[in-house]
Amino acid sequence: MKTVQEPDIQKIRNDFPILSQKVYGKPLIYFDNAATTQKPQCVIDKISEMYSTTNANVHRGVHYLSQAATDEHEAARQTVREYLNATSSDEIVFTRGTTESINLVATSFCRTLCREGDEILITAMEHHSNIVPWQLQCEHYGLKLEVAPISAGGELIPEELEKKITPRTRLIAVTHISNVLGTVNPVSRIIEAAHRHDIPVLIDAAQSIQHRPVDVRAIDCDFLAFSSHKAYGPTGVGVLYGKEKWLDALPPYQGGGEMIASVSFRKTTYNRLPYKFEAGTPDYVGTAALATALRYITTLGLENIDRYERELYRYATGKLLTLPGLRILGNAADKSSVISFQAGNIHPYDMGTLLDRMGIAVRTGHHCAEPLMRELGVEGTVRVSLAIYNTREEVDQLINGIQQIFGMFR
Ligand code: PLP
């Protein structure tokens, strides 16, 4: 099998200044990439360049700087469109992140397209960001939140999900890749089934767009949400992709500048897509830097990233499974680079704290997926999540660290 060679990875690592840092005198090993990724120098430089040379409020200025900032911001929208293979940049709405994107759809969709007794269908492996926004609307409009179950191995069971579709189902919201289990969900199949009943589907792509090619036209999703900061981009920026017909059907989410066509005290009319959903000054520095991050990913090649991360994931999983008493949660046939485990009787918090002292950053706890934890019968896990700059040597250090900690508790 062709692999991305180690020297390339070393070159990639050199792009990320933070990775050369030491913590507690130890080289930093960063395995918390599902929470947020580190930033390459080009993204850091872009932020600095924008504030140094191109800072002015967008869309409403006739002056040079405002035009330049607007051009950057709108070019970023084009970059996102190309990255997702959306039909039009009108389908790309900039938000603050996955959470805000989902809140936007939940609020605007349920307000206009749902009636009391209607149902929203999610799955048992959702992040709180794809649960709570729907619960808020369910509470407000008397809707029901239905939950498709998962298998003991942490896989969605498409037949079971389809059984949950009723004449009252108005929307299905599902994560592409679980941030806890790494399970890759068969989104095309789910979308196909939903569309047979004319039900739109929202894909939470927070854990997928940085790891695998995602083509919104190929999977035919109606909405898709992701966060810049999990894809090597800056914090505070996200994307909502929506098919034009759905975005057209939804009312604005927030009111303010930018989202209006005209305002009077008697009546306000709204701007065209996508601006109807972008109230207030957008984070044009963030969007420009997000575009830089997406270009960085594209230059590395998502296929190369996917192939390398899969190999590293298999290596890490194999090594972890050799440790007596360590149990990996979720063994889906298709998994991404997230590994959650329990280490015997050692509390995840203790494991995480002790690994931290060795310079190894992992995440511990419920990972914003409390219902999934309950489903799995655990309070929390230790989560190792990989990115393109992680190496086999780092995995070996992790294994070594866990062995030492096992020794301490023996
Ligand atoms: N959905 C999934 C699957 C996630 O993993 C996360 C973050 O961890 C989110 C949504 C929320 O992302 P953000 O906090 O960037 O809005």
3D architecture notes:
It is a single chain. With 410 residues, the chain is of the alpha/beta class. The protein has two domains: 134 residues, Aspartate Aminotransferase, domain 1 (Alpha-Beta Complex); 254 residues, Aspartate Aminotransferase, domain 2. Helix content is 41%, strand content 17%. The protein is built from 14 helices and 17 strands. It has a seven-stranded mixed sheet with strand order 4-10-9-8-7-5-6, with helices on both faces. A four-stranded antiparallel sheet has the order 13-14-17-16, with helices on one face. The protein is globular and about 75 Å long. The relative contact order is 0.16. The site of pyridoxal-5'-phosphate has 15 residues, from helix 4.
Helix fraction, binned, reads: 40-55%
Q: Cα distance, first to last residue?
A: 40 Å
What top-tier CATH class of the largest domain fits best?
A: Alpha Beta
Structural class: alpha/beta
Number of strands: 17
Placed side by side, the strands forming the largest sheet appear as 4-10-9-8-7-5-6
Number of domains: 2
Average pLDDT confidence is 96
Bound molecules: pyridoxal-5'-phosphate
**Anisotropy-based shape:** globular
**Count of discrete alpha- or pi-helical segments spanning 4 or more residues:** 14
Task: Examine the secondary-structure arrangement and name the CATH architecture of the largest domain.
Answer: 3-Layer(aba) Sandwich
Low-confidence residue ranges: 1-7
Compute the CA-based radius of gyration.
Answer: 22 Å
| CATH level 3 topology of the largest domain | Aspartate Aminotransferase, domain 2
